[in-house]
Amino acid sequence: MAFLLDPVFWARWLAIVLIDLSLAGDNALVIALAVRTLPPREQLWGRLGGTFGAVALRLAFITIVSQLLRIPFLQAVGGLLLIWIAIKLVRQDAGEGEGKVRHGTTLWEAIWIIILADVVMSLDNVLAVAAAAHGDLVLVIFGIALSIPIVIWGSGLLARLMSRFRWIVWLGAGVLGWVAGEMILKDKMVHGWIGPWAGFLHWTVSAVLGVALTGLGWWLARRAMGEAGTSEATE
Predict the structure, then answer these.
(1) Most exposed among 29, 179, 182, 192, judged by the fewest C-beta atoms under 10 Å?
(2) 3-state SS, residue 80
(3) Which residues contact 66 (CB under 8 A, 6 or more apart)?
(4) 145: region left, alpha or beta (phi > 0 left; psi from -120 to 50 alpha)
(5) Looking at the 3D structure of the chain, how many domains does it have?
(6) pLDDT (tens digit, 9 = 90+) per residue, 12-33?
């Protein structure tokens, strides 16, 4: 327990906490999007299961981060996966077929989406945490543990707001689109290809993806409302 009296330990711990909290907003957003269509009793279990599953995988990835980052195009593929997740979530929100909003995901589907999205978005975060910890896994566990209740509480609040204000869902998809664009263009292989255009494309591609996914969410919701109105008129 002597490490508890070491000021260097606490300085590194604080750095890890700040790194984790900087990503907490994105994580809370994904969790809220994934669980918002679940029955109220299952939403808490979805938030808990998804958060703890994602944390467990993040801890595992930190131990092998140097090997992971050597995989070509890993971050770019992660960005593409995040776009797919965002589209899946806005389609779930709008509903499909016969103008009826479908139930959305099951509890296990929601947990899987949360874990997958968190792992995808945490690639940069994992590298930063590993560097700040200097190989000390105790520090990593301490730092991540503090972010868990904040993410769970924040995602619950967002889910409730999304149920009242549908436009938050569309903006959430746009945020995921922006993050996906950043991930793709920060990939070492992609960054090497675009060279001098990196700065311009970073903002342009991220903005286009963000606007496109926000617009997609709005359009799907309008289409579902139109189909619902047509269905009611024919009955």
Answers:
(1) 192
(2) helix
(3) none
(4) alpha
(5) 1
(6) 777 776 666 666 667 788 888 8
